[in-house]
Amino acid sequence: MKDIAEIRADFPILNRKVYNKPLVYFDNGATTQKPQCVIDAVTEVYTTYNANIHRGVHFLSDMSSEAYENAREKVRSFINAGKREEVVFTSGTTGSINGIAFSFGERYIKPGDEIIISHLEHHANIVPWQMMCERKGAVLRVIPINNAGEIILEEYLKMLSSKTKLVSVTQVSNALGTVLPVNEIIAAAHSVNVPVLIDGAQGIQHGVVDMKTMDCDFYVFSSHKIYGPTGIGILYGKEKWLSELPPFQGGGDMVDKVTFEKTTYNELPFKFEAGTMNYPGAIGLARALDYVNSIGRENIAIMEKELLSYTTEKLSGINGLKIYGNSVRKISIISFLLKDIHQYDAGMILDKMGIAVRTGTHCSQPVMDRYGIDGTIRASICFYNTKEEIDTLATGIEKVISMFS
Amino acid sequence: MTISEVQDKIIDEFSLFDDWMDKYNLLIDLGKELPVIDPKFKVKDFLIEGCQSKVWLHPDYDGKMITFTADSDAIITRGIVALLIKVFSNRTPEEIISTNLYFIEKIGLRQNLSPTRSNGLLSMVRQMKLYALAFNAKKQIELRYGSN
């Protein structure tokens, strides 16, 4: 296996400086950096075989169509989905959830029906369902959380009823790092024949994700959070759902036959891929998944677990620092505040030391409201981070505290 | 002093520091020294909400000059707010409207006023100019039609 120096050498940006200081990148929850092989894959498309997919009969079009379909197969195998027809390319997690919220709403939702989400959701897994509920007269139910930032499973079980039409929850909280008990959530929903969508935006990059064992009905994620290019993402859906759902966008490539009287749709997965898709992005994503596999997903999980516990230990020792989200099941994200110091002030000073963290509500305002705060400072780590960088963060935080006291 | 002279003075003051840390320490001091806003103005009507930090801004017009008081929940933002108050407060609406704001860029704090930095400062500058425009319009109307 590669050592940490070799891993870091794969990511050219990690070598740069900001304000003349080595970059310390702890904003991986927002987006991850790209290994050279992913950058090369995208460059290779544009320099050697760029052509629109599924259209021409010419050499380049065949080549790019094949690379695009190979990328789909790569994703299928990465998440262990049953069929390539179940893997739809979208613009990202947000695009995937909006698509399902629209199509599912059109096909199945009636006034009074209920959709269940959790209090830990990113706005992308709240707003599309609110829009759908508004359109269809349905009701949005929210699974509450405890002070540790864990969902209260008993409350969820009480919520499930004959009115429930869909459950949509995140695998990992982007604001607190809590890992949700998705297996229990899915099993309970399935026992009353309710489908489940899992938002994998913060889950896919941290370990093995297997559609067969997870058995969710929909799984969505973004390429850019798993070391791939931005602007491309995945909507996995079980075939029985995808074949029943209407398309969420109309246009080229998603059709079978078009007349002004009636249009019939293309087969899966193309029914959901209207217009020119981001094929260089898909090809880049496939390369990113190869890269992740080359490091090993189990290895990544072990490295990140160690880094998180080191960070937690290190930050817990700082006087006046409070960590939000203390679940025993946490991944890679540590959200905190410093006593009497605004998170924005802290973030500005850390930035000047070359440390990139995120401050604010992390697109999860309800989580902040739950704790009665305006936001947090979030350090999100991944396997290319080091203990030395965590030490730099801790020293930086001490400096911030001394500046504002 | 004219508005430009005030801006030049701020630029001189900041040019004493090469190190960003000293600049931010000065901003923190300015933030701490900012005169407190009357609590009755620290309400929604006078709130400029940024996604990262909040700014409250209240104008007072005596028929000649506009006096601004302001506050923020973040200290660095408050430091910049203090500088903007130095530049814009106790000025006529005409002066405020015609002012070209250049000191922020010159002292290396431009990123704090970029549209993507939603700390409320860019909106605060806009709001100060809008108040000046409104008071100016009110004055013109009074000049033309009398105050009743």
Describe the 3D structure.
The complex is a heterodimer of chains A (405) and B (148). Chain A has 405 residues and is an alpha/beta fold. Chain A folds into two domains: 4-30 and 297-404, Aspartate Aminotransferase, domain 1 (Alpha-Beta Complex), CATH 3.90.1150.10; 39-293, Type I PLP-dependent aspartate aminotransferase-like (Major domain) (Aspartate Aminotransferase, domain 2). Chain A contains 14 helices and 17 strands. Chain A has helices at residues 4-9, 36-49, 59-79, 93-108, 127-136, 153-159, 182-191, 211-214, 239-244, 279-295, 297-316, 343-352, 365-371, 387-404; strands at residues 17-18, 21-22, 24-25, 87-90, 114-118, 139-143, 164-170, 196-199, 218-222, 233-237, 255-258, 263-265, 321-324, 333-338, 355-356, 358-360, 376-380. Chain A is globular and about 70 Å long. Chain B has a three-stranded antiparallel β-sheet with strand order 1-2-3, with helices on one face. Chain B has a single domain (3-145), classed as Alpha-Beta Complex (Sufe protein. Chain: A). Chain B is built from six helices and three strands, in the order H-H-E-E-E-H-H-H-H. The model of chain B has no long low-confidence stretch (mean pLDDT 88). The chains are: A alpha/beta (405), B alpha+beta (148). Chain A binds chain B through residues 19, 342-345, 347-349, 352, 359-361, 374-375, 403-404, and chain B through 20-21, 24-25, 28, 51-54, 73-77, 119.
Please state the average pLDDT score of chain B: 88
Structural domains of chain A: how many? 2
Total count of domains of chain B: 1
Instruction: Quickly give the structural class of chain B.
Output: alpha+beta
* Number of helices, counting only DSSP H or I runs of 4 residues or more of chain B: 6
How would you describe the shape of chain A?
globular
C-alpha end-to-end distance of chain A: 45 Å
CATH topology-level fold name of chain B:
Sufe protein. Chain: A
Can you tell me the CATH architecture of the largest domain in chain A? 3-Layer(aba) Sandwich
For the biggest sheet of chain A, the summary is: 7 strands, mixed
Percent strand of chain A: 15-25%
Low-confidence stretches of chain A: none
Overall morphology of chain B = globular
What oligomeric state do these chains adopt? Answer: heterodimer
- Identify the strand order in the major beta sheet of chain B: 1-2-3
Percent range of helical residues of chain B: 40-55%
